[in-house]
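Researcher: We plan to redesign the surface later, but first we want a full-length starting point. Tokens attached.
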């Protein structure tokens, strides 16, 4: 007997909201400097369905009805376009972890760092957002199961990774959180690049934070953040 809840219908309110959210964040990717052209892709899991950007479409032309909806085997269940070519990566995250959103970008600083390092070190306490130093997933051809497996390995115990000679992946319980993590990861990579350039030019060594400090930071971050108080009825004060 299958005890799993039935997947929502393609016109369900939950899927409609997810498709609108995908459009909203996808159309931020270029202005936020995280991708160029039609590169990168984002997705959200809704029950046993994956709401994801279509392949090769100009983000400015993306509308909710063009957003792809797939099952956990990658079959399109709604939407007129093929989903991103990185669907194996998104499916691997959703079938092996509890994360509900994936953001994959080709942000400039992060991509540059992915060419230079095997791991982004603890150069700033915000590395704690990712669970520790950020690993670089071994290179494999885009859109392949091999790349998906490499990324899943690099994500163990982490909320983000770099992809060697490729870009970034960040994950989280919501698209908003996964997206913000991608922005933080790009900032950390930019800091590393600037520090590496300056230290090399001056013959200096870069100072890294010890693991016990990152663990303290992670504990503090677990209770960090606030939401504004609301009146009855849900309106902000």
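Model: Full-length starting sequence:
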């Amino acid at each position: 007997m299958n005890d799993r809840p039935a997947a929502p219908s393609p016109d369900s309110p939950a899927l409609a909201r997810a498709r609108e959210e995908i459009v909203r964040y996808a159309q931020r990717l270029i202005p936020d400097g995280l991708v160029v052209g039609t590169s990168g892709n984002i997705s959200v899991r809704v029950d046993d369905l994956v709401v994801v950007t279509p392949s090769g479409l100009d983000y400015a032309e993306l509308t909710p009805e063009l957003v792809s909806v797939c099952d956990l085997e990658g079959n399109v269940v709604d939407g007129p376009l093929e989903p991103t070519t990185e669907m194996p990566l998104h499916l691997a995250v959703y079938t092996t972890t509890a994360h509900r959103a994936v953001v994959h970008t080709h942000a400039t600083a992060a991509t540059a760092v992915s060419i230079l390092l095997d791991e982004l070190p603890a150069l700033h306490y915000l590395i704690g957002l990712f669970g520790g130093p950020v690993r670089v997933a071994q290179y494999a051809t885009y859109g392949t199961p091999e790349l998906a497996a490499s990324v899943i390995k690099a994500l163990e115990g982490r909320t983000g990774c770099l992809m060697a000679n490729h870009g970034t992946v960040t994950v989280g319980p919501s698209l908003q959180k996964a997206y913000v993590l991608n922005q933080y990861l790009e900032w950390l990579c930019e800091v590393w690049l600037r520090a590496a350039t300056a230290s090399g030019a001056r013959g200096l060594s870069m100072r890294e934070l010890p693991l016990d400090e990152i663990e303290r930071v992670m504990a503090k971050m677990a209770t960090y953040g606030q939401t504004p108080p609301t009146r009855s009825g849900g309106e902000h004060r």
